[in-house]
Sequence to fold (369 residues):
Amino acid sequence: MNLHLIKNTKIFTVVFASISFIACSSKNNKENDVAQTTKPIAVTTAKPTSFTDGSLHFSGRVEASQSATISTRVMGVITMLKVNVGEHVSKGQLLVSINSDEIRAKKAQTEAMIAEAEAAYKNAQKDVERFTNLYKQQSCTAKELDNVMLQYNSIKAKLDGAKQMRNEVNAMLNYTNLTAPFSGIITQKMASAGSMASPGMPLLTIEQAGTLQINASVPESEITEIKVGKQVDVNVKSANKNFKGVVALINTSSQFTGGLYNIKISIPEADKKSLLSGMYADVYLSTSTPKEDNSKAILIPASSIEYKNELTGIYTVGSNHTALLRWVRLGKKVGDKVEILSGLNKDETYIISADEKLFNGATVIEKNN
Fold:
């Protein structure tokens, strides 16, 4: 009996020791996992500073120099729309057909009106000739001749009106068969066969191929520095391209653009190949006289900026010691730093570097200096 109790006690001791060992091992593994997922970082505080700026920076987009939106002036069911986005089309190529039964019926009515008016017109002409001869022979009065002339002019006016109606119907028929105004590429398709088209409704957008340019917006405080023919540096991040462009056009009015002036920048032919319409571009222009900027801008190292597609952000530290990606809007580049226009306020702490790649929610710890 005692021997059996001793054996049970030994077994219990071994089991307890095993459980304790497993628990300790699990605890150690968790601590190791936490240590492995913690990202050592270097942080600093955003401080507004003044700087000497010798260049201008503004944003723009690559666009086709010639584009058109195809629409109609009639209402009807689209019977044919076979082109697709990305498809090349030729000038004069039929793009859209719209049901025109009602317009054709109206054209038939106008043709009948014209035929009737022409018959009456010919008869009125004969009456005018006959009464003119009778008047010369003093066989009719001037009043009778005036009545015949009045009827002739009335019938002629009706004939002219019927012909103008036919011109109007033919013009409407032209809007039931829409063709390409120039050779290019279909960039948008907003309808399909079987849809109902209405006047002014956009159906397709076509852009002329190979005629790319950059459209940029410049604030009024900087527009005086820009001249037609001025060379600028252009960076298109999504295409990983840097090239020099030339200011080709300056819009001298900002009335409908929120105080911004639109400028057009030509692109060298060799650099157009890998560019696509809609890509964002950064434009840099050297100024003739560098000036002190006393606006106390927030400048941060360009290396700390995170790029996600067309968005830009910077990592800050959350209250629970985790990395928090915050989207920001960038301004001018000053040396190896970049201006923050919005998204980061003064005296806020942000991460300037990390030993490992950061992600949203990653546990971080400040490195010891």
Q: What stands out?
A: Residues 53 and 173 are 60 Å apart (CA to CA). The helical segments are 2-37, 101-136, 142-174.
